[in-house]
Amino acid sequence: MGRTATIKRETRETQIELTLDLDGSGKTDISTGIGFFDHMLDGMARHGLFDLTVRAKGDLYVDDHHTVEDTGIVLGTAIREALGGKEGIRRYGDRILPMDEVLALCAVDLSGRPYFSFDAPFVPGQLGTMNAEMVREFFYAVSYSAAMNLHLKILTPGNGHHMAEALFKAFGKALSDAVSVDPRIQGVLSTKGKLE
After folding, report:
1. Whole-angstrom distance, CA of residue 18 vs CA of residue 74
2. I want to staple 56 with a disulfide (CB 3.0 to 4.6 A). Which of 7, 10, 16, 19 is the partner?
3. Pairing status of strand 149-156 against strand 115-119
4. C-alpha dihedral sign at 59, 62, 65, 68
5. How many other CB atoms are found less than 10 A from the CB of residue 162?
6. How far apart, in whole angstroms, are the C-alpha atoms of residue 100 and residue 154?
7. How far apart are CA 25 and CA 88, in angstroms?
């Protein structure tokens, strides 16, 4: 049985359906109504080798906040559900990733205890059609709904597009490492005997 999850979330602000396959090949089909956000999710999934389908409709006449944040909630929930009991996974993943002049760091622990650290000097304003502030809000929502420890840091800042893209791709690669199965691990990788 594959490590997949399909999550639907509907509120007065957004309607989202997302399918995630942790053991995919990087195939994507993404439509959120926010072109830049679609581009970031595509890069995350392709470089993490996850299959990802997203259909999101939100109150973009207000702004992009609800759509981006709620997509993060749904993605985090899908990660948690697809992992099941987390038996055999490596649990930790990290990546330092260059994107032209930018250098980004991502570290993930699928501990079951949410914590989020974000250090990225985005200038207020737009990244395409997405507010730069929403990069942080997206990853915050993912980390807490997935119950993961997530650290993101820009080591060498530069162009805002490059910083966002480096963070999304670094997250995809770090998460791919963390969810990978190691046959040497019996049960879960924890001295407590559980990851929750």
Report:
1. 7
2. 16
3. parallel
4. positive
5. 18
6. 13
7. 20
Structural contact between residues 40 and 160, judged by C-beta atoms closer than 8 angstroms: no
Q: CB burial class (10 A; 0-12, 13-18, 19+) of residue 53?
A: middle
Q: At what angle do helices 65-83 and 133-146 cross, to 10 degrees?
A: 30
Q: Which one-letter amino acid corresponds to residue 53?
A: T
Render pLDDT for 74-129 as a digit per residue (tens, 0 to 9). Answer: 999 999 999 998 988 999 999 999 999 999 999 999 989 999 999 999 999 999 99
Strands 130-131 and 126-127: antiparallel
Nearest to 93 by CA among 26, 148, 142, 137: 148
The predicted-structure confidence for 11-58, as pLDDT tens digits, reads as follows 999 999 999 999 999 999 999 999 999 999 999 999 999 999 999 999
